[in-house]
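The material for today's practical consists of a large collection of protein records. A record pairs a protein's sequence with a compact description of its fold. Instead of coordinates, the fold is spelled out as a row of discrete tokens. We will come back to this pairing of sequence and fold again and again. Here is such a record, shown just as it appears in the course material.
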Amino acid sequence: MDFNPIIEKFGLTGFFCLLHWQAKPFGLRRWGIYDAGIDQYFATTWDCIDVNCTGFPLQIEEIKVTTVPTAVLYFKNARTEQRNYLSIVKCLNQLPTN
């Protein structure tokens, strides 16, 4: 899994999250969240994601790269917070200050 082609193509910097549908075989597919602020990847199921930001679709041409993912939802100025089994994508202004 390599998010760098998307990050480079769109010049993404700072704190952001990328949400995508994994390209694993049928029956094993899950959702994935890449948090650039901590350079960490979280795999989760559809019913364990809560998104509190507006996302923007980004996609690169599949014929120009050999890596996945090639399409994501981009959440600018966002971080992923983990609570038990729940992955929460929050805008930075919604994160606790403590």
